[in-house]
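Researcher: Quick sanity check before group meeting.
Model: Go ahead. Protein one:
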Amino acid sequence: MKIAILTISDRGAAGETEDKSGPLIAQIIGERTVWEVARQEIVPDEQQVIARTLLQWCEEKVNLILTTGGTGFAPRDVTPEATRQVIEREAPGIAEALRAESLKITRHAMLSRAVAGIRGRTLIINLPGSPKAVKENLDVLLPILPHALGLLTNAPDTESEHRTV
């Protein structure tokens, strides 16, 4: 499986702050799966830039794109809109499950506007920007991904594809 990680942050893209969530996603994927992180980038909170990057990665046959950041209420938080611009089918159960589990930890989870969906054979999932929330979301998400990606790519769903630590 080819995985791509897109961090959405104006300050990160400008080099004003260090991206902690994108590298954390890559670390967790590396520790808990056998999947390859094929692409990792930081872009500003610009809807067209985000959408163009997502579309390019879908065309490159990336199996899973995990975004981090830009899912809240701030005026520049446009990751869900960019994602909806690219996807062909929504996968609302994923975003709902992530919010439901996050609500057990913080009431602020109800402020998430994150979405998940499919374009072709690529699954795109918006994650929060906070490293703590990213880890919590991946704890919920990783166990279902082998089956989800297996269905999407017609690949077998085997335990050798995924291991949980």
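Researcher: Fine. The other one?
Model: Protein two, sequence then structure:
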Amino acid sequence: MAPLIGIRREDINRWERRTPLIPNHIRELRERYGVDTLVQSSPLRVFSDEDYRLQGARVEEDISSAPVIFALKEIPPSLVAKDKVYAFFSHTAKGQPHNMPMLKRMMELGSTIIDYEMVADARGRRLLAFGNYAGQAGMIDTLWALGRRLLEEGLKTPFADLEPAHRYGSLVDAKEAVARVGWHIEHRGFPDGLAPLVVGFLGYGRTSGGAQEIFDLLPNEEVAPGDIGRLRDKVYSAHRLYKAVFKEEHMVTPRSAGQAFDLEDYYRNPGDYRPIVEDALPDLTVLVNGIFWTPHFPRFVTKAFLAGLFGPGETPTLRVIGDISCDINGAIEATVRPTDPEDPVFVYDPATDQAVPGFAGRGPVIMAVYNLPAELPLEASAYFSAALKEFVPAIARADFRAPFPEVELPDPIRRAIIVYRGEFTPAYPNLGPLVL
């Protein structure tokens, strides 16, 4: 009998239109590996039911006959089925409280969880991710937010002509719109008082790289983070932007006087380093955050600093923080809540510690859309599916009734199994107390 997999429809919200496997790859899996696919019908998915049928998939409401179910986002506990293998972004590996009920239910029903976020090579590099598309959508939304904020101040700029990423028909359309903005900046410049317009990027991985790919459609000049404060003392242009990319050595410094920065030591002992991003923040117009963060690392923008920056006096240069990583109260402490594509921003008011709707106020605009790749569903799905399909045949053929040490799976997939037949795998023993 041919191995059978299922693709679950996404129901976390109306914005989630992505799919883990696109129709062309479903056909490839059938023709090359004999893997059949059941697709749950969806009115929202970027690929229609008919797209899947034309490539040989069976589209049905009930996909319970498939032993392995592929999805993207969290699954409501009430919809979890007994003895199934689920591959998705479970958002449980860090002990996220809001997903503990789902995790508990899956364990009670003897489920197996393969978490895409944990699929990595031997060096820890993630193999299944949307980071690049999160960065691109996040940068588009951030530039749009900048245009709206400046309009509130009475400053008309080309950024005001942009739309959020999800309003474009494709990524190509969005890039063309940003390029047109770049043409206007290069030929007409910014209003008086706005230059030098400096955008700082935290990080240099996939997420930051995607954001910079969009930013680089604009005329710009790169400066070292340490030189940002001296820009105003030099000859700068109102016909370009300035970009500063913050690596770890620009974000923290050793607490011990005379100690040199050491990257490996920083990741081993982050508490021995203090953050210094705030030193540059008063000279930035926009800050874009694209770093991976956990509570072990310092916060790079604190509420206390923003309270001082936006206190009485002149209006600060900083207008927008594009928090693409969107860790609530995390690296950007002012990210006090997530947003969605329909209402992607708020103003953080340091005086009240509140998220205020809109673009106006005594505080920075925060862009914190938690599922940014969903704003580019076509391109993001195709990219993710191309990576995932390489693992699907092995997952589809694996005997998940065997003891965990004996199940035949590629190492990246084995390392990503959080729960196996209702029990935590050896790599995730610390989650146990959180589901009691």
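Researcher: One line on it for the slide.
Model: The first strand starts at residue 4 and ends at 7.
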